[in-house]
Amino acid sequence: MSETGERIKKRRKQIGMSADTLAEYLGVDRSTIYRYEKGDIEKIPAQQLPYIANALKTSQHYLMGWVDDAEISNSNDFPKIMEHYEKLNDIGKQEATKRVEELTHIPRYFLEIKAAHNDYQNDAGEKEKMQEDIDNLKRPE
């Protein structure tokens, strides 16, 4: 089972939502929800994730495993943002996307990255892999 699938199932049960209700909200079959949850569909379509998060009253970050807290304080932000975004023409949508992308380069807006550990840190090959992972986490300045 994938972490995302596990989190979808866990959150769905936390809020008392049936797989049928989630499936109806997303416009997919119930079997698709079960396949997401079991990890049979490993790569949930990126465009579907915001809708899953919204239906489950959580964040995409939680579903992806980037944060541990399923509760979100501003659960109404995504629909509000999408409402404004949908009013834009193609040029406006490109500009909005560009500006949001720019925010990802400003440290004060970064998500905190969860730490990990490795039980084989004394192995030279593992040290090299860990350093590569650390280098990949560094954001451009």
Counting DSSP E segments of at least 2 residues, the number of strands comes to 0
Per the CATH scheme, the topology name of the domain at 3-64 is 434 Repressor (Amino-terminal Domain)
Based on secondary structure, the structural category is mainly alpha
Rough shape?
flat
Main β-sheet: number of strands, strand sense, barrel status?
none
- The fraction of residues assigned to DSSP E strands is under 5%
Name the helix and strand elements from N-terminus to C-terminus, one letter apiece.
Answer: HHHHHHHH
Architecture per CATH nomenclature, i.e. the level-2 architecture of the domain at 3-64: Orthogonal Bundle
Poorly predicted parts: none
For the record, the CATH class of the domain at 3-64 is Mainly Alpha
**Head-to-tail CA distance between termini:** 36 Å
- How much helix is in the residues? 55-70%
Q: For the CA atoms, what is the radius of gyration? A: 18 Å
The CATH homologous superfamily of the domain at 3-64 is named lambda repressor-like DNA-binding domains
What is the number of helical segments per DSSP (H or I, 4+ residues)? 8
Query: What is the mean pLDDT?
Result: 82
